[in-house]
Design a protein that fits this description.
There is one protein chain. This protein is an all-alpha fold and 196 residues long. The protein has one domain. Helix content is 79%, strand content 0%. Helix 2 packs across helix 7, helix 3 packs antiparallel against helix 4 and helix 4 packs antiparallel against helix 5. It starts with a helix and ends in a 15-residue tail after the last helix. About 3% of the residues have low confidence. Keywords: Membrane, Transmembrane, Transmembrane helix.
Length: 196
């Protein structure tokens, strides 16, 4: 193999490794930020905010990985620090939240792929609305099994959560911008399709 080809392959592998490390770093950073909000708001993990960030800044697989990591930490905090009861109903509620969060991430990523917005802020806003709606529909889907849908999906609660998670998204995005400005490598999201 010619030296130039070998050098090119080595450079490509090194760049791929750096990109993968940057993606994993952001999954870790977003999970830590999510953990702090979970502790501050007594386990109200901002899944729709994370899903919007993942849709815009991570590829779909890494977005799902982020959501699973945030969900696992949220459950650990709930059961180990906040005194969640160790029963089947609570565990099933956790499963419902996890599946709704992953669904919100996937839908936000798909919407971001096909939305014609070019501005990052517009993309985040559209992905957030898609993630929030999908997350809540996911909870509604589980409502016959887990109960309490009337409380979780009441209009005042939905409005409060929508605003709270939007504020958290703004804070997370500001943190993202600050860290990338300080030299933390940005994640390398998969290329998106912009429709004309």
């Amino acid at each position: 193999m010619p030296a130039s080809v070998a050098g090119f392959e080595e450079t490509m592998m090194t760049n791929a490794t750096r990109t993968h490390q940057a993606d994993l770093l952001w999954i870790l950073l977003f999970t830590i930020a999510s953990t702090l909000t979970t502790l501050i708001f007594a386990c109200a993990t901002p899944f729709p905010a994370l899903a919007a960030l993942a849709a815009v800044h991570l590829d779909r697989r890494d977005g799902v990985l982020l959501m699973l990591a945030a969900w696992a930490v949220s459950q650990a905090i709930g059961f180990c620090a906040l005194g969640y009861p160790w029963d089947a109903a609570t565990a099933l509620t956790g499963v419902a939240i996890g599946t709704a969060a992953v669904a919100g991430t996937i839908v936000a990523s798909v919407v971001d792929t096909y939305v014609p917005a070019r501005s990052t802020l517009a993309r985040l806003a559209i992905a957030y609305v898609a993630a929030f709606a999908t997350f809540k529909l996911g909870i509604l889907f589980w409502a016959p099994v887990i109960g309490h849908a009337d409380v979780a999906l009441s209009l005042p609660i939905l409005e409060r959560q929508f605003v709270r998670y939007a504020v958290i998204l703004a804070v997370f995005y500001a943190l993202y911008r600050l860290l990338t400005a300080m030299g933390v490598p940005a994640p390398d999201a998969a290329p998106r399709t912009v429709l004309a």
